[in-house]
Amino acid sequence: MPTVPLRLRALMTAVPAALLASGPAGAIEHRTYATGEMLHRALQSGKTYEQGIARGYVGAVADIGAGEPVNGFLFCVPATATLEQMGTVVRDWLDRHPESRNYAGKGVVGAALADAYPCRRK
Questions:
Q1: What is the pLDDT of residues 72-97, one digit of tens each?
Q2: In 69-91, which positions are buried (b, 16+ CB within 10 angstroms) versus exposed (e)?
Q3: Which of 25, 51, 56, 66 has fewest C-beta within 10 Å?
Q4: Cα separation of 118 and 91, whole Å?
Q5: Are 47 and 94 in contact (CB under 8 A)?
Q6: Which residues contact 75 (CB under 8 A, 6 or more apart)?
Q7: pLDDT digits (tens, 9 = 90+) for 25-48
Q8: What confidence score (pLDDT) does residue 120 get?
Q9: Helix or strand or coil: residue 73?
Q10: What is the 3 state secondary structure string of 35-66?
C-alpha cells in the first residue's frame, strides 16, 4: 500500500471536516471572498503580485457584468480598457468613497465601473 504524503493526509482530513462544519446539507450560505477594503489595499500596494490578483478580480467582475447588472450596477466597459485601467478606476473610486470599503468586492467594483463607464443609450 503506498504511503500518503503528510500534506495530502492533512488536506484529506481538513476538507471533509470543513464541509461538515459548514452547515446542514443543502444549506446555501453567501460568502464574500473580497471586500472593498481588501481590494483597496491590494490596488495601492507596491507589490505587483497583489495588484495583479486585485486587477484579476476586477476583470472577472467586469466580464460577468458585461451587459448584466452586478449588484444593481450596470456598466459598459470599452473593449479597449485594460486591467490596469480598470484597477485604477476601482482604486480611485474607493479613495473617494472610503465608507464603501466594507462592502462586498463585486458591489464595489460594479459601482466603480458604473461610475466610470456608464452605458449610453443609442
A1: 999 999 999 999 999 999 999 999 99
A2: ebbebebebeeeeebeebbbbbb
A3: 25
A4: 17
A5: no
A6: 62, 65, 110, 113, 114, 116, 117, 118, 119
A7: 444 555 667 999 999 999 999 999
A8: 82
A9: strand
A10: EHHHHHHHHCCCCHHHHHHHHHHHHHHHHHCC
